Fold this sequence. Notes:
- The protein is mainly β and about 120 residues long.
- It is about 0% helix and about 50% strand.
- The protein contains no helices and 11 strands.
- Strands 2, 4, 5, 6, 9, 10 and 11 form a 7-stranded mixed sheet that branches. A 4-stranded antiparallel sheet has the order 1-3-8-7, with no helix packed on it.
- The chain is globular, with a radius of gyration of 13 Å.
- About 35% of the residues are buried.
Amino acid sequence: xxxxxxxxxxxxxxxxxxxxxxxxxxxxxxxxxxxxxxxxxxxxxxxxxxxxxxxxxxxxxxxxxxxxxxxxxxxxxxxxxxxxxxxxxxxxxxxxxxxxxxxxxxxxxxxxxxxxxxxxxxxx
Length: 124
């Protein structure tokens, strides 16, 4: 059974850091790109970052460039999102998703499995 499980969300002060984890099971992680998405209350889902199957290609939303870093360890079936210098506008539920592609060139419609998400709240 294919599954993606996120963890690492928490309440953090502005300027703080968090590391989100996405544990994958039921499929060969190395064959697919993985994306991180977020959705804040009352807002549409936003793509945050994507990492290609080999980790050789990364992409970030403009709003997180220079602050967030995506990585993966295929041998451990894990994908990570390191988030630094967090801002209140980063508050959202963060989810990881499996792409049908090897690369990050597809749109949101090319992600076929999603995790339940983990809550990140940035507040003083």
